[in-house]
Amino acid sequence: MLSIFSYLSAEVDWCEGNFERSTIIAEYYNTSCFWETRDRTTLFSLFLLIPLKLPGVGGCLHGEPFLSFRTLLTQSALFLAGVFSMYFHMTLSYVGQLLDELSILWTLAVAYSFWYPKVYFPRCIKNRKHFLWLSGVITVVSTLMSFIKPAFNAYVLNCIAFHLLYLTWRELKKCKDKRVHRMAAVMVMWWGLAITSWIADKWLCSLWQTINFPYFHSFWHVLIAISLLYCCPLVIYFNITYEMPSFKPKLEYWPSNSWPVVVPYVALEQPHKQC
Ligand SMILES: CCCCCCCC/C=C\CCCCCCCC(=O)N[C@@H](CO)[C@H](O)/C=C/CCCCCCCCCCCCC
Ligand SMILES: [Ca+2]
Ligand SMILES: [Zn+2]
Fold first, then answer.
1. Which among 228, 229, 232 is the best mutation to test ligand 1's pocket, defined by most ligand atoms within 8 Å of the CB?
2. What is the rounded distance in angstroms from the CA atom of residue 192 to the CA atom of residue 198?
3. What is the pLDDT of residue 73?
4. Which atom of ligand 1 is nearest to the CA of 114?
């Protein structure tokens, strides 16, 4: 029982050398890149989930409180995924690996359950409550299956990004708003760089070790965090477009559209009733 918690008991070991900069942190850069970016991104994403309320601070969205339940749940799940990822790289333990993978799976489940536009529900699903049950069952079954071959899970999880890409592509075909096209293009660019770094670290490790630069997995952490920063407002934008069209969502950048470093968010054009 103890061995599944012990250092280096995981099925995978990333290219970065172990215990090179610390005696208690197995992969220093992979762990700290979480700390540098994931946590900040989590804070940023808090920013971009809240803007649902920004145009009329104190306003309410169909009776949702300032920080709605689905926002809080998505936010907490993202945060937990970050914490478990850090624990995994710090210990490279079997439990750490499973926590890292399962927290991503459950975060995706939460995001899909609460933000997936109804228009894309399978025909047999009549409402969000049924969809929630469906996602719950799929997630529980996937959780049980994930124990079969944990090293394979990360590949499956990465494939979910292709579904998000497919949905984005379907939406872009219908949408003429240049801001949406621009945000999707930027998201895809960062995701492309992220997945390239992930694959490069996994498949070409001996090459990076030869040139003494085994840091591509830490790049992945930074890059996937940035692509999520664009993915979240896009998903929220599509959700509101379908489910609350009267709020006229608009993609904006904080602090301003012209700044070189920006945080994208969703603004609601229409003033709405007070809570
Ligand atoms: C309203 C918001 C809706 C947003 C929907 C997106 C929900 C995102 C859900 C989970 C994201 C967590 C991803 C961070 C992963 C961090 C942990 C990590 O890096 N683990 C690795 C080992 O350390 C492991 O090998 C990685 C496994 C694969 C993770 C794949 C995650 C895919 C998430 C999709 C991101 C979409 C971005 C843009 C898509 C075009
Ligand atoms: Ca390593
Ligand atoms: Zn990682």
1. 228
2. 10
3. 87
4. 1
Q: Which of 258, 185, 233 is nearest to 44 (CA)?
A: 233
In a domain, 274, yes or no: no
Q: What is the pTM of this model?
A: 0.90
Indicate the pLDDT class of residue 82, thresholds 50, 70 and 90.
confident
Q: What is the ipTM of this complex?
A: 0.96
Q: Determine, yes or no, domain membership for 174.
A: yes
103 lies in a domain?
A: yes
- CA–CA gap between residue 162 and residue 157 (Å, rounded): 10
- Is a pLDDT exceeding 60 seen at residue 49? no
In 3D, which of 70, 64, 46 has the Cα closest to residue 128? 70
| Domain span holding position 111 | 2-268
| Residues recorded for the chain | 275
Q: 217 among the known binding-site residues?
A: yes
Q: Is 194 left (phi over 0), alpha (psi -120 to 50) or beta?
A: alpha
Query: Per the structure, how many domains does the chain have?
Result: 1
CA distance linking residue 165 with residue 154, whole number of Å: 18
Domain assignment present for 70: yes
Give the per-residue pLDDT at 265.
Answer: 83
Give me the pLDDT at residue 262, please.
85
CA torsion through residues 198, 28, 84, 48, sign: negative
